[in-house]
Amino acid sequence: MGVKSMVGKLDGLLQVGKAAEYLSVTSETLRNWDKSGRLVPTRHPVTRYRYYRKEDLDAFLASIIAQREHE
């Protein structure tokens, strides 16, 4: 797989720092959620860096809001 095709697959994905900013949490919080299985990132096939889809982050936020509404 060429570099261009790998980069194309990363379109629409947020790196840890940007995803943390989007959710208004720290990067460490995202890493902890990953370790606990609460929010699972996509991994780069070569570097194994974490990436997050905006759709997954939106769904995660919606689930947190729904939980809090039922408390």
Topology:
Blueprint: H1 3-8, E1 13-15, H2 16-23, H3 27-36, E2 42-43, E3 50-53, H4 54-69
Antiparallel strand pairs: 1-3, 2-3
Helix pairs in contact: 2-3
Strand content: 5-15%
Low-confidence residue ranges = 1-8
* C-alpha termini separation: 48 Å
Give the overall pLDDT as a whole number: 86
Indicate the overall shape.
elongated
Q: State the total count of DSSP E strands.
A: 3
Quick overview of this protein structure:
This protein has 71 residues and is an alpha+beta fold. It has helices spanning 3-8, 16-23, 27-36, 54-69; strands at 13-15, 42-43, 50-53. The protein has four helices and three strands.
Structure, explained:
The structure is a single chain. The chain is elongated and about 40 Å long. By secondary structure, it is of the alpha+beta class. A hairpin with a 6-residue loop joins strand 2 and strand 3 (50-53). It has 4 helices and 3 strands, in the order H-E-H-H-E-E-H. The protein has helices spanning 3-8, 16-23, 27-36, 54-69; strands spanning 13-15, 42-43, 50-53. Strands 1-3-2 form a 3-stranded antiparallel β-sheet. Helix 2 (16-23) crosses helix 3 (27-36). Helices cover 56% and strands 13% of the residues.
Task: Give short descriptive properties of this protein.
3 strands; 4 helices; 13% strand; alpha+beta; three-stranded antiparallel beta sheet; elongated; 71 residues; single chain
